[in-house]
Amino acid sequence: MRVRTMLLAAALGMAGAAGTVAQTSGFAMAQTSGFAVAQGTPDLPTRRPEEAQADPMQAFDVNKNGKLELAEIKSAAAARFDELNPDGDDALDEREAAPVLPGEAFRAADTDKNGTVNKAEYLAYVEQMFNVTNPDRDGSLDRAELDSKNGQALMKMLR
Ligand SMILES: [Ca+2]
Ligand SMILES: [Ca+2]
Ligand SMILES: [Ca+2]
Ligand SMILES: [Ca+2]
């Protein structure tokens, strides 16, 4: 037990050291060659809305585990709801929701049938879509699930 712990610590230490060496040598190269400088200082990733549309995984995967969990999806959906609801009341009417919930989808999401979709209804609908998009029920959407037809429909409901 103790030996294993020590080995693990050693392995982690080595990995850390290797990372430092790689960083140091990269820095040295950058200093000696103009070309390397240009390559070594990429633009910081800035997230414009169109990029979020292009790669939802990158945009919404807050914990950077390569999958989208329900919590990440719901928080992005809540932001989208606010964006769709500029009048600041508590719900989307059919016109406000049209970009993401056309016709039949709007009526399906309006579970209390009062003619508007409030945030709770919106998030419940998003959760339903999440479950449909997640047939393996592992709590998250991987890249393949995201690329499915259901996944793409779900991404439209996020910001
Ligand atoms: Ca994630
Ligand atoms: Ca509204
Ligand atoms: Ca409603
Ligand atoms: Ca899954």
Account of the protein in words:
The structure is a single chain. This protein has helices spanning about 1-30, 35-40, 50-55, 55-60, 70-85, 95, 105-110, 120-135, 145, 150-155, and strands at about 70, 90, 115-120, 140. The protein has about 160 residues and is mainly alpha-helical. It has 2 domains: about 1-40, no CATH class; about 50-155, Recoverin, domain 1 (Orthogonal Bundle), CATH 1.10.238. The model is unreliable at about 10-40 (pLDDT under 50).
Write the layout of secondary structure elements.
Blueprint: H1 2-32, H2 34-40, H3 49-54, H4 56-60, E1 68-69, H5 70-84, E2 91-92, H6 94-97, H7 104-109, E3 117-118, H8 119-133, E4 140-141, H9 143-147, H10 149-155
Helix pairs in contact: 1-2, 5-8, 8-10
Bound molecules: calcium ion (4 copies).
CATH class of the largest domain: Mainly Alpha
Number of helices: 10
Strand content: 5-15%
Q: Runs with pLDDT <50, length 5+?
A: 8-38
Average the pLDDT over all residues and give the rounded result. 81
| Tally of DSSP β-strands | 4
Strands ordered across the widest β-sheet: 1-4
Largest sheet: 2 strands, antiparallel
The level of helicity is: 55-70%
Which ions and ligands are bound to the chains?
Answer: calcium ion
SS content category: mainly alpha
- At CATH level 3, the topology of the largest domain is Recoverin, domain 1
Shape: globular
Order of helices and strands: HHHHEHEHHEHEHH
Q: What is the domain tally?
A: 2
Q: In CATH terms, what is the architecture of the largest domain? A: Orthogonal Bundle
